[in-house]
Amino acid sequence: MYKSIETILVDIPTIRPHQLSVTTLRVQTLVLVKITTADGIVGWGEASTIGGLNYGDESPESVKTNIDTYFAPLIISIKDLNIAQTLKLLRKNINGNRFAKCAIQTALLDIQAKCLGVPLSEILGGRLHDSLPVLWTLASGDTKKDINEAQKMIELKRHNTFKLKIGSRPLQQDVDHVIAIKKALGADISIRVDVNRAWSELECLHGIQQLQDARIDLIEQPCAIQNTDALARLTARFDVAIMADEALTGPDSAYRLAKDHCANVFAVKIEQSGGLIEACDVAKIACLAGIDLYGGTMLEGPVGSIASAHAFSTFENLAFGTELFGPLLLTEEILTTPLRYENFALHLPTMPGLGIEIDENKIEQLRR
Ligand code: MUC
Ligand code: MG
């Protein structure tokens, strides 16, 4: 059935340093997975991480090693299983490794949808949106630069909603930076912040109160990943929406966070969820619990971003939009036709599978 599985690391410089509380990204390593069937059908997946091991518990190198050593022989050994049985086999034999599992699942679903001649979204329940709103993250670390960057994005009709990365500077400096940007861009522009778990609960009380008063729309993962009790207390205390990001690691954690009222919004990510199917499960749990949805990114390139878009396009209500801007942060294009970002949105392809074509010559030039 499956003839070969290749994992390729591609290092691409970013258009500017991207400063998060946990790391500053200057180069993004795309972890691309290519699965080829005996009939010559090719499926692609991606398992990029943020800053090696700075953000999560998988690195590009661990993903490659684990796919080459454990996933690939298992998949090659499959004789006659459908995709559901194949994914069950992987779950049974491989613990953890959500990012690697996501890349493999994406490539398998790409193949399956190509075989059926339908866009990948159609085998995830069906597309409800042909385009998805995409915000831009301001993370240059400099207030003036961020304001200029935002104004340029609005002029270009690329983005009209912005997420600000904070948490690496003293709290009051960060809060003043956010308020200055909100004032400069005006009341109609939605501003959100991502603290990337940098604040203690006490700092959250001081910081979030000021951000709420300044009409910031969303506070993303303000405190430690494990401190979900604090997340619940903050959600109960403030009117501004509190979003779980790093604390959300798939359907199990979605269930626990929902049960304990730990957030108003879930940042659904295909890699953090362990796959597109699991991301859809997370969204379903959120819907049942009355939690709003936001389509998150691990700053993937075009493969992971469009895979995410296929999953998110099946969500009935994406109240807080998406952040699928990863490809726009990169200085190199790896598709023969770039993803279509227009009118503040990412437009989904209609071709079978992921609906993209990889520029394999470019990959050869850029691969590590
Ligand atoms: C995160 O924590 O949300 C997503 C956008 C961005 O700038 O960083 C990532 C990770
Ligand atoms: Mg985040």
TrEMBL record:
It holds the Pfam family MR_MLE_N. Its EC number is 5.5.1.1. Residues 144-241 form the Mandelate racemase/muconate lactonizing enzyme C-terminal domain. InterPro entries: Chloromuconate_cycloisomerase (IPR013370), Enolase-like_C_sf (IPR036849), Enolase-like_N (IPR029017), Enolase_C-like (IPR029065), Mandel_Rmase/mucon_lact_enz_CS (IPR018110), Mandelate_racemase_C (IPR013342), Mandelate_racemase_N_dom (IPR013341). Keywords: Aromatic hydrocarbons catabolism, Isomerase, Manganese, Metal-binding. GO terms for biological process: amino acid catabolic process; peptide metabolic process. GO terms for molecular function: chloromuconate cycloisomerase activity; manganese ion binding; muconate cycloisomerase activity; racemase and epimerase activity. The keyword Ion transport does not apply. The keyword Metal-binding applies. The active site is at residues 165, 323. Pathway: Aromatic compound metabolism. Belongs to the mandelate racemase/muconate lactonizing enzyme family. This is Muconate/chloromuconate cycloisomerase. It comes from Photorhabdus temperata subsp. temperata Meg1. The lineage of its organism: Bacteria, Pseudomonadati, Pseudomonadota, Gammaproteobacteria, Enterobacterales.
